[in-house]
Amino acid sequence: MSIKTFLLPDLGEGLTEAELVRWMIAEGDSVIVDQPIAEVETAKSLVEIPCPFEGVVSTLHGDAGQMMLVDEPFISVNTGGVEPEAAAPAAEGALSYREEEMAGTQVPEEAEEDEASGNVLIGYGTGASKPSTSRRRRPRAGSTTAAASSETSTQAVRVINPLVRKLARENSIDIHAVRGTGPEGLVLRADVEALISQGQPDAAAAVPAAPAAAPAPAAAPAPQKPSEGAAAGADKRTGLPVASSQVLSGVRKTIAAAMSTSRREIPEATVWVDVDVTKLLKLRGKIKESEGQAPSIMALISRFAVAGLQRFPELNSRIDVEDDGSLRHTIFDGVNLGFAAQTDRGLVVPNVRDAHKLNANELSAEFARLAGVAREGKAGVSDLSGSTFTINNYGVFNVDGSAAIINYPEAAILGLGRIVEKPWVVNGKIKVRSICELTLSFDHRVCDGGTAAGFLRYVADAMTDPKKALSTL
């Protein structure tokens, strides 16, 4: 019998964890190579995981709803044949992706002789060689061993993501003073952001010191009268019944983090203008009548926006914070056009790669294709990342306008409101025209209001006289 263990693979874009949505097989089932075995939800999308082995499922290393870490056991399969003498989850002499990120603990030589020692997992000490069937229960050195070696070893703070360390460093937070809320005290980005939002409380408040001796038993609290405490199932702050309460995860967690980061780091400003799109609607109608189909209104406006970015490239850019605190402004030669798409899993931003190379019909087709795979939860990481400018059509929700939050780390987002008929002055006379509100939220660090207004005016003028604009593209 030969048992092979498949580790959760690197899902791209530096993602280190994924939530197990469901298993598509069970222990004892037969599987073949490339057979889908599970669905996991990353911070970017819903992903099907294929099996790399053929055989019988021996162990499923996780349950639905559990967070699974990259480079840790995902599934074990009995492939038959003779078991290798030195089976190991990773190649000898090479650190896994997660082990590299956890590097930092100094392991004393004495620990190598511990009878429970197995493969050294950097950042965790050593553990028993027996494989564990629990995702979150990595064996660690016992308290006796830890006490004996406390003067010769130092346990690194439990942080798996280098971006978390960088975030703490940039905000003058001692990472050792952060109380981790992840499994086994793992420090998450949210933990650091919580300290930042609270004004960076000191270490004593963040990490309580271990007492030198066991504290005396506390006196039992006096029983409260019914009026003094919150009712069962009620919120303590408001006293209202709680309809639901859950920790954000998956895409919803990613959206929350991205919006918070955008608001915290980008000094944004917004400009807007009402646009007469009567001629644009008529032009699209003529195209559809003559050709049987026509690009969407959003595709036509996106074509104008891409052309506008070539004239005002500062808005097609990004600002990054360097390690020394300086700001780097990067302007792109080409446009990856993101667009907001509402799905059952939340708001996602697919992006059309090299949008500057596509005409309106091609943009319309890509919008439809990417929106479809996003709503089905089948968009890949590359489909949902890498955009340089975003357009948001909130008119589909029947609203006129919105000061949209910039899709971090981009520099601007263009918003389209609904198209409604309004009285409009044309050549001194009041006429009924189709009007759309156009808004632009932009990073004030990359440009001033004149540049933003120039871009918005260019797009608005093209929407007002689309035939003339398309002839010059």
Walk me through this protein's architecture.
This protein has helices at 97-101, 143-148, 162-170, 189-197, 203-206, 250-265, 278-291, 297-311, 360-375, 449-464, 466-472; strands spanning 3-7, 17-23, 30-31, 36-41, 46-50, 55-60, 67-69, 73-78, 268-276, 317-321, 327-331, 337-339, 341-343, 346-348, 351-352, 389-393, 412-426, 429-443. It has three domains: 1-100, OB fold (Dihydrolipoamide Acetyltransferase, E2P), CATH 2.40.50.100; 162-205, Dihydrolipoamide Transferase, CATH 4.10.320.10; 267-472, Chloramphenicol acetyltransferase-like domain (Chloramphenicol Acetyltransferase, 2-Layer Sandwich). A six-stranded mixed beta sheet has the order 9-18-17-16-12-15, with helices on one face. A four-stranded antiparallel beta sheet has the order 1-8-6-3, with no helix packed on it. A four-stranded antiparallel beta sheet has the order 5-4-2-7, with no helix packed on it. Strand 4 and strand 5 form a beta hairpin. With 473 residues, the protein is α+β, with helices and mostly antiparallel strands. 25% of the residues lie in helices and 22% in strands.
Features:
OB fold (Dihydrolipoamide Acetyltransferase, E2P), alpha+beta, globular, Chloramphenicol Acetyltransferase, 473 residues, 11 helices, Dihydrolipoamide Transferase
